[in-house]
């Protein structure tokens, strides 16, 4: 049961009750009045009847009292009412209830006074004689037989009251029935008025509980219908706004998620408000774990936390770099700006960018420039020195002069090679080199490569051999492949003592994923490479033994170029070596080059 419905029901019932009781009283009054009126009419008609039919005797005669008393008693029996004969002067000469001689003068009685004036008079009053409320009707009657006075009929009102009570009882019954019906109707009316309101209230509550799909199913045109329409329109608009908000949120979220830069937002309470995916990855944290916590909980990244602390306490922009070590050593650039909204400080926004690679490349570039200058300086200085000596004219014997010229020539050659290698390397590194692929028949290829280099090997008495499967072709850039193997083989000959051997072996391999590759191994029985240098020999200008490499004419760039060329063929190169026993360079190149996009 809903209070408003109950209240409305009660109010309706009370209104109906009050009007029914009012109507009841009015009806009772009318009923009583009309009943008494009807009685009066009857009684006055009876008086008229008596005046016309009764045998009157002289009122003054001695037997008059006895006669009228007897008549009164007789008529009273017939009419069931009290009857009194009264002279004009008010003396009672006959009464059906009491001895007239004992009765006082009736001339001052209201009904007699009225009858004297109008012919008929009536009155309701209490009768001392009969000790009850009576209705009196008196008629002025005069007869030729000697009667000139009033005939008065009176009746107790008990009968009226009895009738009235019956009417009341009957009415009360009807009233109760009506009342019950009214209660039912009131409840129905109240329900019909309140249930749409309750329906609307339920929907409004669902909307409050974020169920924006809730609608009031109502097609009424009245005020309640208008309220329902307004609620539905409100829900529509809320849903629209929510959708816009969600769409915007999604958009922002996807921007945040897909940013390569990291975002770290610290609110005015110095708590982490937001961390995007890039920051999660960079700092190895998760938004759900750190959001709402103090930024100090990032203490694992001590340097970074210090910088954040500085930004949060100064509320000033920051542009700095810090190294973090978890997970792995990286350089992070941190740009911070205070977030202001309507002139109030909302926190600090930090943009994190990993610059490790950029800094590494920058460092490499400057090292490269330094290395190049250094490498160039040495031969240039040698050429200059020997040329100056010769020009000075101090060298007279021809043999020394020739040897100086030879040195100048050799150094110039080295310089040439160096410049050539540097140009080649920078071309490859800046990705200006394109592969010109074609099928390369490997047996023919190695025949030609070994042929070119065999003279050098023979000079050192090094045996040179190749083990290549017949009819094996590889798709690749023949010139580049030649460059690769010439480099590896000349290194192998260079770093192998006289009498050693250098071998090339080629096998065809099918990888577990079904792709075919060719594995080349260039091995020698040379001096080998110390374990600590193995990871670095593919770096530019890296030489295990500078003096020896230089004496053998190396530039320190050969393996660098090889590695780049192998990678250009989507292959991989690795090295195995044991000091004093020999080295093996192992290359794995795909059999076929995939189409470039
Ligand atoms: P370089 O022109 O000096 O030979 P590379 O880049 O070709 O330069 O080689 C780098 C260094 O690796 C060499 O200086 C040498 O010390 C070492 N190295 C290369 N190949 C071999 C090998 N087969 N045996 C021993 N050491 C080698």
Automatic annotation (TrEMBL):
CDD domains: HAMP, HATPase_EvgS-ArcB-TorS-like, HisKA, PAS. GO terms for cellular component: plasma membrane. It catalyses: ATP + protein L-histidine = ADP + protein N-phospho-L-histidine. Keywords: ATP-binding, Cell membrane, Kinase, Membrane, Nucleotide-binding, Phosphoprotein, Transferase, Two-component regulatory system. Residues 371-593 form the Histidine kinase domain. GO terms for molecular function: ATP binding; phosphoprotein phosphatase activity; phosphorelay sensor kinase activity. It is a multi-pass membrane protein. Residues 248-294 form the PAS domain. It comes from the Bacteria. Residues 191-243 form the HAMP domain. One of its GO terms (biological process) is regulation of DNA-templated transcription. It is an enzyme of class 2 (transferase). Its EC number is 2.7.13.3. It is found in: Cell membrane. InterPro entries: BphY/WalK/GraS-like (IPR050351), HAMP_dom (IPR003660), HATPase_C_sf (IPR036890), HATPase_dom (IPR003594), His_kinase_dom (IPR005467), HisK_dim/P_dom (IPR003661), HisK_dim/P_sf (IPR036097), PAS (IPR000014). This is histidine kinase. It comes from Paenibacillus donghaensis. The lineage of its organism: Bacteria, Bacillati, Bacillota, Bacilli, Bacillales.
